[in-house]
Amino acid sequence: MKRGVALLILFGALLVGFSSAQESRGATMPEGLDDFKKIGERFLDVVRKDLPGIITGIWKKEVLPFWQKMGDWFKENIFDPYINPFFKKEIEPRGPVIEEEFEKEKEELKEDIKTEMPEAGRSIWERIQDLIK
After folding, report:
1. Can you give the pTM of this predicted structure?
2. Which residues of 20-42 are buried (b: 16+ CB within 10 A; e: fewer)?
3. What is the spatial distance between Cα 50 and Cα 42, in angstroms, rounded to a whole number?
4. What is the DSSP string of 13-32?
5. Is the pLDDT of residue 23 over 70?
């Protein structure tokens, strides 16, 4: 947050400096659409070249560390003391029952596939032989 405010102040000071420097050198406002177009093209070139690097730097230096800190805090203060013990207490004893149910579901799905889609159970070679006949 402090960095953002500092950057805004810096950019504001730079803009004021640039405007005063242009006035002292005798720079004038663009007169026609062609001048505006040239300025816009130069601006877009700078944005295309520099903006991805700026965004990547901000992402790596500010955003990721923030979310990593949030994740670490969540793991230490919520997941480890509350959620993980619940899973260990409730889920681990039911492991064998869950595995049995999973196997039953798997067999039922295999049967459904065989009855509803008889083509799926056939090999590629059988399909090719049917096409040749």
Report:
1. 0.40
2. eeeeeeeeeeeeeeeeeeeeeee
3. 12
4. HHHHHHHHHHHHHT-----S
5. no
Name the one residue in this structure whose structure tokens are 């039953």: 104
Write the CA distances from 85 to 56, 78, 98, integer angstroms: 38, 11, 19
Give the number of C-alpha atoms closer than 13 A to the C-alpha of residue 73, restricted to the C-beta side: 6
Beta carbons within 8 Å of 118's beta carbon, 6+ residues apart:
none
Mean pLDDT within 124-132: 76
Q: Degrees (nearest 5) of the Cα angle 111, 119, 122?
A: 85
Q: How is the chain split into domains, by residue range?
A: 33-90, 96-133
Taking the C-alpha atoms of residue 22 and residue 52, their distance in angstroms, rounded to an integer, is 28
Q: Provide the mean pLDDT of the chain.
A: 80
